[in-house]
Amino acid sequence: MRSTFSKEITRIAQANDSVVLLTGDHGYALFDEFRKHCPNQYINAGIAEQNMIGVAAGLAKAGFRPFVYGLSAFVPIRVLEQIKIDLAHDSLPVVLIGDGAGLVYSHLGTSHQAIEDIAATRALANLQVYSPADRYELTHCLDLSIKSQTTVYLRFGKADRGDVHDRPIDAHLGDLLKVREGAGPLVILATGSMTRTAIDIADQEFSDAEVWSAPCIKPINELTIIAIARRASCIVCLEEHSIHAGFGSVVAELVAQHAPTRVLRIGIEDRFSETCGSYEYLLQEHGLDTFSIRKRIADFVQVSL
Amino acid sequence: MRRHNFRFDPQRLRMTVLDMAYAGSTVHLGCAFSIIEILAVLYRWHLRYPANNPNAVDRDYLVLSKGHGVMAQYACMHELGWLDDAAIKGYFSDGSALTGLSDSRVPGLEVTSGSLGHGFSVGVGLALASKRYNSGQKTYVVVGDGEINEGAIWEGALFAAHNSLKDFMVIVDENGFQAMGRTSDVMSLNSISRKFDAFGFETVTVDGHDQEALNQAIQSLQSSALETPKAVIARTIKGKGVSFMENDNSWHYTRLTKDTYRQALDCLERKSG
Predict the structure, then answer these.
(1) What's the number of domains chain B is made of?
(2) Are B156 and A58 within 8 A, CB to CB?
(3) Which residues of A touch B (CB under 8 A)?
(4) In Å, how far from its chain's centre is CA A40?
(5) Which of A12, A143, A201, B154 has its CA 20 to 30 A from that of B223?
């Protein structure tokens, strides 16, 4: 997924010389390709994220198409107010790339883990929020972002979890993508890194469960979610993000209003990571490993059906 | 756009500010009065707006980073014909466009301010864009001395100097006050000039109410052969022009009554008479 990002951002910049890439001194080696082919479109803005967003705003006001790269713990979290006032307020076409979303930086602790970025950004007016699950969705999201007439936040989490699609995506902004067929009463909706997990879990234990991926969290195709809720007996939402105001909340809000159905939101509970360890270890600490998720879904299905 | 004679007479600008503040029963008079001459000099002699169009793509940029002084800019925009009398008289009325802090959706205002330390960096981005286009457009950013408490200002200063943004100029309204008191009591700034100097700016300190001196300071910096960004430290008086408001920080928050409005107008009329 990271090599796809490197390749795609270079392709986008080569095709459009108004594209500039700003980074807050992050992305070592990730932009080697970009710097080789588009050296004049690369700006290392230093360890100064607030200024970087303001500079991106100024560049966009003057006609450039800035992509701003950072870790999602910093872009958007550290600079939320700059995003609100300098970018979103004017619907400036700036694309914010938040790498390492969720628990990716498991060994580095709370400062580098981003479990609140969807919640924070989805409440900002004029801002779109994307969360691709694999390299195909990433390409799809980057294509959407360069076409966007407003500010975009694209979060990408653990990048090496494997593909969930087998071909390039042909979909519209906000569309959910069915990644596993199933006619059973349980439907699993997932976003980002948890989409691969959702498919694996369905394969292991819930063979008739349909699984959908949501590469766009805002806007989102509400009609698709409502149609799913009308058909399903229970819905499970999976995300590597806080259960408060994340993707699961988006689904729960829509379902509650339009087609009340039981919804289980699985994500990170209201707490920070307590320990240091591998990515897989921290998933387990937060109950996001396949064993824990399977058990929670099984319990939920039992009381729902 | 309706054309005016663009005199930008400081006393008349202050009267417009008073009219707005009285009409809207608003605050922030003192910090609008301290930047009147700065804005007058910029609009009169420096800012280029082709066809008097605030949205002209090749315009110079005036970024009011200290949005609290926006009434001073509205007064100038009124002289340019960008705002009509109704906008001044109807300030703060329900459904009106002009807010108490600058809003970039109003043509002529480049940024949305009020949260401080934002406009500086947006201005840096505009100046970087002009440099990349090689368009020669100038960017002027007006910040308050209290505002430069914000760390983002200094991030932007590093960036502007590192990128040799020679057409970027910050003008610091050094009125010596911020919301809760004197800057020297709240957060000592010591020498602002030496700070910008140390960040790689070419810096001039000037009386911020002396239009000729301001104009010359800006001109001398513009004609410099150095590739560095510029800083003008404008020594000003909060509440300048109305004797009972000068250096009285309560006018950051006080609303005009019929009496104080009349007294303030009298002060200004005596001066302009």
Answers:
(1) 1
(2) no
(3) 45-46, 48, 50-64, 81-82, 85-86, 89-90
(4) 29
(5) B154
